[in-house]
Amino acid sequence: MAPLKTIFATVVLVAAIGAGAKWASMRPLPVSVVAATTGTAIDAAYATATVESSERVTVRSRVAGTVTQILAHEGDTVKQGQLLARLDAPDLEADLERSAGDLSVARSEATAIEAELRTAREDQSRTTTLAKSASISQAEANRASNGVDVLAARLDAANAKATALENQIRSRSSSGSRNEVRDLEVRSPLDGVVLKRQATQGDVVPARSPIFDVAELKELLVECVVDEADLGRITGGTRAVVSFRALADKTYEGSVVEIARDANREKKSFIVKVRLDAMPAEVRTGMSAEVNIILAKHENVVLVAPGSVDGSSVWIVRDDIAHKVPVEVGVRSPTAVEIKSGVAAGDAVILDFDHVHEGSRVAATPIAWSWNKAH
Questions:
Q1: Which fold does the domain 45-55+216-297 belong to in CATH?
Q2: Residue 256 · residue 234 · CB < 8 Å
Q3: What is the rounded distance in angstroms from the CA atom of residue 104 to the CA atom of residue 107?
Q4: For the chain, which ranges sit under pLDDT 50?
Q5: What pLDDT, on a 0 to 100 scale, did the predictor assign at position 97?
Q6: Model pTM above 0.85
Q7: pLDDT tens across 250-300, in order?
Q8: DSSP per position, 125-149
Q9: CA angle at residue 202 from 197 to 206, to 5 degrees?
Q10: 2: Cβ–Cβ under 8 A, 6 or more apart, which residues?
Q11: Residues 325-333: contacts with CB within 8 Å, 24+ apart?
Q12: Cα 225 to Cα 288: distance, rounded to the nearest angstrom
């Protein structure tokens, strides 16, 4: 049997361990809390975007040819009708040479037919005289006369062909040459800026080949791609908030002005264009932007931090005790969640609730939180 002193020591040790465990179980659990507040809940469709001009055209060559001169470059400001490039089109010169050759052949043919016609008319005169003296039959004289008629018709056709070719060449040498010069010149169809040059000097380009992209920059739009799931809630005039990566910490308001009628069938999305109420002077075409298209906006509602919602409940602290409270959730956004019922402004809402149980004693540490930091 153990000595009485040893037994007493063991009892004291067990009692101490039990007291320590009880003390540890009563120690408050540290948690981070944010205060529910009142503000504006915004449901928005987020999209990345690019700044584009309201009017952008591709300037193309009218004819096939070689680019002999480039007179405008990317970033240049141009006026309507301004010469941007020149082409050389050997095919046009070859056509002119072929027309000249055809005219020479037509003239030679007419000359030959005219010679045949003179001979035929002499023969007609002779046969007519012989027919009158009954030296030949009338039928033979008629054949000679018919031959004259045929040759005269052929001569008229040859002369008409030669005249048409002469007129064609004359036209091309006067007003026609101006048309050809026009076809060899690439000019801007509008006042704007050259966004892209798609050909260089020496390039051989086919007819209708793109040479320049020119944009009218009086009005810039923000063009974004919106998922079809959000499209039904967007109409012309729907408000939007835009931020530009080049203009940090600033946001600009605008509205939807155009929604594409056709979708990107692979991504199931639509292009939506937004016009800002006031476009910053620093913005240029091609700049990147972020757009939040406002789908719903609820004023003066209770808001909590996004990470504090546990399904359809939140955890709040009252008198240093954690309580799980059922709530009705409204609009969700990256910065705030609307609580329609169950929480009041000022309630301390627990963020790190994973290890909290109903009735847990907690030591709350307030965390600063601003629901409108993105607006």
A1: Elongation Factor Tu (Ef-tu); domain 3 (2.40.30)
A2: yes
A3: 5
A4: 1, 4-24, 175-176, 373-375
A5: 60
A6: no
A7: 999 999 999 988 877 788 889 999 999 999 989 988 899 999 999 988 999
A8: HHHHHHHHTTSS-HHHHHHHHHHHH
A9: 75
A10: none
A11: 330/41, 330/298, 330/301, 331/41, 331/42, 331/43, 331/296, 331/298, 332/43, 332/306, 333/41, 333/42, 333/43, 333/44, 333/306, 333/374
A12: 13
The pLDDT of residue 17 is: 40
Query: What's residue 65's pLDDT?
Result: 86
In whole angstroms, give the CA distance from residue 95 to residue 99: 6
pLDDT score for 49 = 94
CA distance 79 to 53: 16
Q: How many alpha carbons lie under 13 Å from residue 1 in its C-beta half-sphere?
A: 1
Distance CA 161, CA 352 (A): 96
Cα–Cα distance measured from residue 33 to residue 264, given in angstroms and rounded to the nearest whole number: 44
Residue 111 phi/psi, 5-degree rounding, is -65, -45
The answer regarding whether domain 57-90+191-214 maps to CATH 2.40.50.100 reads: yes
**Contact of 282 with 247, CB cutoff 8 Å:** yes
